[in-house]
Amino acid sequence: MKTSRRSFIRSASAIGALAALPGWACSQGTSPKTLNILVLGGTGFIGPHEINYALSRGHKVTMFNRGKTAPERFPNVENLIGDRDDQLDALKGRDWDAVIDNSGFYPRHVRLSAELLHGHVGKYVFVSSISAYGEGLKLDDDEFTAAYAVMDDPTDESDSIYGRTYGPRKALCEQEVSKVFGGDAINVRPGIITGTGDPTERLRHWLRRMVAGNEILVPGQDDLPVQYIDAADLCGWMVRLLEDGNGSGPYNAVGAEKPYRARPLLEGLIASTGSESTLTWVDWEWLRANNTETANYGPWYGEGPTPFMQVTNKRAMAAGLRFRPIGDTANDMIAELDSFGEPRWGPGGFSLETEAALLAKWHAK
Ligand SMILES: NC(=O)c1ccc[n+]([C@@H]2O[C@H](COP(=O)([O-])OP(=O)(O)OC[C@H]3O[C@@H](n4cnc5c(N)ncnc54)[C@H](OP(=O)(O)O)[C@@H]3O)[C@@H](O)[C@H]2O)c1
Fold it and tell me: What span, in angstroms and rounded, lies between the C-alpha atoms of 41 and 157?
């Protein structure tokens, strides 16, 4: 290893952006009170983080899924089978202290579950997204000043769950929960979630390259702001918010304490993973002119900094949201690097062949 983990964490603290916070509340210990928690969508990416954390804190968990995604995942957790699309019978006549809704993408589905569960659960945590904000989002906006994204026909369900109207639908879903639950509605708005089990390559792409020790092509500006949150931090915090009982309203749940900047983030990850990789920054204009392969570089894709990667998390931090060092997230993800098939939303960058050809051309120019 070029840099030890300890020295990475020290240097990360020095640059601030990657630092662990003092007093970071880790997931150890049991909760002073035991809760019965219903998790809508327990077997995908973030559901298991919520369930594992809740169980480790001594809570009782029930899941509600269609039974399509990893149905064998939690053999010892009660699994109610149904569908958000009006097949909610399995939820009838039951009571829980709180619900965490991971699988709400259409306002009608969320209205149905909120109306059915009202009076039978205390708090309704809806996992929304910063995509619920409109394109007019500004740097100094917070949860209460930012305007919602809107769609022409709020009843239109023709789009796929993560399609073009994902953001405005999340905004409408939030409003459904707030209408029914009032002050007991908690609308959590994450940005890019990563960590173990992340089905996308939005962070893993860099880790794959770093593990291979390649020269890495990085598109765009090296001071690009980037926000990633580890699902473990997000999900642990949501459960603690329920334990605390005082959570209410909207929270931007983005990490880290301050937005990362692309270069220190990637250099820090190279150090923390002990990689021999070097970084070569290439501007998008040149890449577009010299290549036809489309690549989903996540936050790196685009023309430059956007308020969507610099969203304030002050309110969530005041309510206890804390972040582990992203070097730890990276090493946990590297430990499971080979266990992923087709990534959600495609590769996280150019293919290795295209990347090598582009780097050669860039160096030769
Ligand atoms: N990943 C990110 O960066 C990010 C950022 C912001 C917000 N979010 C939000 O985070 C939430 C969770 O995302 P995720 O990646 O964990 O989701 P996921 O991996 O797709 O998991 C979805 C879960 O919901 C269940 N489910 C899906 N459709 C259902 C239906 N019609 N009826 C009942 N259960 C259903 C699935 O099980 P079955 O298939 O067995 O039904 C599965 O357990 C989403 O609301 C997403 O919008 C994610």
Answer: 19
